[in-house]
Amino acid sequence: MDAVDRKDKKIGTIAKDIAHSKGTIHRAAHVFVFNKKGEIFLQKRSKRKLLAPGLLDSSCAGHVLAGESYQKAAARELKEELGIKKAKAKFLFKSLFIKKTRTYHNREIIALFELDWNGKVKISSEASSGKWIMIAKLRKEIGEKPEDFGSAFLKLFRKFLKLKKA
Fold first, then answer.
1. From the CB of residue 69, how many other CB atoms can be counted at a distance below 10 Å?
2. Which of 21, 29, 30, 49 could disulfide-pair with 74, CB 3.0 to 4.6 Å?
3. Which CATH superfamily is domain 2-164 in?
4. What is the pLDDT of residues 39-68, one digit of tens each?
């Protein structure tokens, strides 16, 4: 994947495991998928995942491959993780996300996209399950148990709510 600076300018390429161990800034795309009822789809990450195992997260998310655009990464992740093909998600914003633990140092510029989708969702093996939830109920769940959610998702969701003035 591409290594970038804080202004999202490419400075080289790097392997994912090295980027996460050294804290090299790289790119990721997240998508919030909504249905006509106004519910957002959340995936529960597999417990086998290095980052946020077993936690509720964005509808889909993944790293941007070297030379790939954020938009193409979002479309690829929609297809790979949710079985959603030929859908064009709307770009909302980019945000720098930093999280350091004993086992990794994640620094990503995350592009958030939004997609209205009323078809079927088929989760991949990267998730253990998924659910549709109304924004009001999600806000309540986050308030009661924020530890059940991935930290990148929480940051993006809060910024999303401010953007939408929800």
1. 13
2. 29
3. Nucleoside Triphosphate Pyrophosphohydrolase (3.90.79.10)
4. 999 999 877 776 777 899 999 999 999 999
Going from N- to C-terminal start, the domains of the chain cover 2-164
Cβ-Cβ contacts under 8 Å for 19 (sequence gap 6 or more): 1, 3, 26, 107
User: Phi then psi for 121, rounded to 5 degrees?
Assistant: -120, 130
Tokens encoding 140? 């309540």
* Residue 35 burial (C-beta neighbours within 10 Å; 0-12, 13-18, 19+): middle
Q: Structure tokens of 111?
A: 């592009």
Model pTM score: 0.94
